[in-house]
Specification:
six-stranded mixed β-sheet; 7 helices; alpha/beta; Nitrilase/N-carbamoyl-D-aminoacid amidohydrolase; about 290 residues; single chain; about 25% strand
Length: about 290
């Protein structure tokens, strides 16, 4: 049985940079733009596809405007239902990051996972929520409450870690301990802030946890906020830290790579990080000695 899985990432710019337009109209334009790339992925035989953070809209967190609460929806809900149809059409697992309304007034930054038969498998809610200049996420999201689930899809065991999460090694390790073979990190991150870390942190996580990582970032600039340029360069990296495929900094793009899951076994036979770890010695992580 082949252990090669064809995976894809979509990076997209926002086609409607006009804050005066209705939220639903902006979302619909972004959705329709993505559907073209989802079709392209299906035609290229992609088996697991991940979209970017809050894919069906702009990254609205530079604002603190209550109007963007109107972008939230239930998960599962209308967008996951639509993606289920595409998953069935192409026999493709799809990771769908959206703005989730869990109940009236309670919102999460969430990624739903749809299996290749269209079945909704569950969701990951972003755990680490930044609140700093240009990234006022605590205004919009509660911290995730669902741990670090791994989804046993038709093609691979998949985990999700969202944007700012990637700066925290504990979650990467938890996903590995929970059995992840591929971890996707959908993001919205701009030049001048984290770009120097973009090709350091995720490859380091792939090596430390000996699995594949797919890192996604959007492209372009988004008005009216102007927090900077989203620099794209979405990529796949293997358990040795080798880059397998990479997108440009500027273009809307589908990135495709064939991931050989047997590489995980090869690397883990050399680097026994899971055998040699010492959880009994890590109390200082949760109970630090201060002073």
């Amino acid at each position: 049985m082949s252990q090669i899985v064809r995976c894809g990432l979509i990076q997209c710019s926002n086609p409607v940079n006009d804050e005066s337009r209705p939220v639903a109209e902006i979302q619909q334009a972004m959705l329709e733009k993505h559907l073209q790339y989802i079709d392209e992925a299906g035609q290229k035989g992609v088996q697991i596809l991940c979209l970017q953070e809050i894919f069906n809209g702009p990254y609205f967190c530079p604002s603190q405007s209550a109007r963007w609460y109107g972008a939230a929806e239930p998960v599962p809900g209308p967008t996951t239902a639509l993606m289920s149809e595409y998953a069935k059409k192409y026999n493709m697992v799809i990771i769908v990051p959206v703005y989730e309304e869990a109940m009236r007034g309670v919102y999460y930054n969430t990624a739903a996972v749809i299996d290749a038969d269209g079945q909704y498998l569950g969701k990951y809610r972003k755990q680490h929520i930044p609140h700093t200049s240009g990234f006022w996420e605590k205004y919009f999201f509660k911290p995730g409450d669902g741990g670090y689930p791994v989804f046993n899809t038709r093609y691979a065991k998949v985990g999700v870690y969202i944007c700012y999460d990637r700066h925290f090694p504990e979650g990467w390790r938890a996903l590995g301990l929970n059995g992840a073979e591929i971890v996707f990190n959908p993001s919205a991150t701009v030049a001048g802030l984290s770009q120097y870390l973009w090709k350091l942190e995720q490859p380091a996580a792939a090596v430390a946890n000996t699995y594949f990582v797919g890192a996604i970032n959007r492209v372009g600039t988004e008005a009216p906020w102007g927090i900077g340029k989203f620099y794209g360069t979405s990529y796949f990296v293997d358990p040795r830290g080798k880059f397998l495929a990479e997108a440009s900094e500027d273009n809307d793009e589908l990135v495709v790579a064939d991931l050989d899951l047997s590489t995980i076994d090869e690397v883990r036979k050399v680097w026994q990080f899971y055998r040699d770890r010492r959880p009994d010695a890590y109390d200082d992580i949760t109970n630090p000695r201060l002073g």
